[in-house]
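Hi Prof. W.,

I finally got the Ribosomal RNA small subunit methyltransferase I prediction working! I wasn't sure whether to trim anything, so I left the full sequence exactly as given:
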Amino acid sequence: MAEESGIEPGLYLVAVPIGAARDITLHALDLLRGADIVAAEDTRSLRRLMEIHGVPLGERPLIPYHDHNGERVRPRLLAALREGRSVAYASEAGTPLIADPGFQLGAAARAAGVPVRAAPGASAVLTALCVGGLPTDRFTFAGFLPPKRAARRAALSELAAAPGTLVLYEAPRRLGALLADAAELFGDRRAAVCRELTKRFEEVVEGTLPELADRFAGEPPRGEIVVLIDRAAPAETDQGTVENMLRDALETMSLKSAVKDVSQRAGVARNLVYEMALRMRDGG
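And this is what came out:
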């Protein structure tokens, strides 16, 4: 039982590697070793991972939980949680609940008053941002877009004004179509296609959206894919508008805070806004 293993009762969302088996954390291994029940989006891949790291399953159940059986399996897991048992859930790869069927399980557990905790670890989103070469100060994760063209284009249109790097997942066979639609709607923004992250054939291809659309228009690549798309270039803001924004901001903020706020909202370099603020303060 959970008390004997030192693991308190509750639902544990366990991040697992996205490629390299050694990317798992010691905390995750402890939970997989000690939980009363182990559940997984893909039981075969989790069983293999546990074997690699010498984590015995023993007599404990390893329960599949995925999009196709969630309605049926969720009550069983919730019943075990209500009985005071510990359940470790792992997605097929990466962090649970990120483009993963575990969301409803976590929501149901919280609604039932069951503790829900996370063992953080590998994530394709953050790994792609690390190696993709696009800004990381702000980003919007949109997961998989709809597979049909009209719905995909509608989703892209809604994301066009995202204030940071756009992060998408895509299936290899649909990558060319996604990039072609993005190039048509977003123009020549910078982008990166990150493939097979942390695996032997990891590849990051950078370029403008039209360049990448041409590159992947033919034979689909293999493996798991993350697409990064740069934010839109800031619109030109006239000096008078920036000055008015500064006056308003300086009424309630320090000079430093006002410069930062206006620079971000107007899309104007901070040093230029700072010089403008100094001139305004000195009556220039």
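The chain has a mean pLDDT of 92. Does that look reasonable to you?

Thanks,
D.
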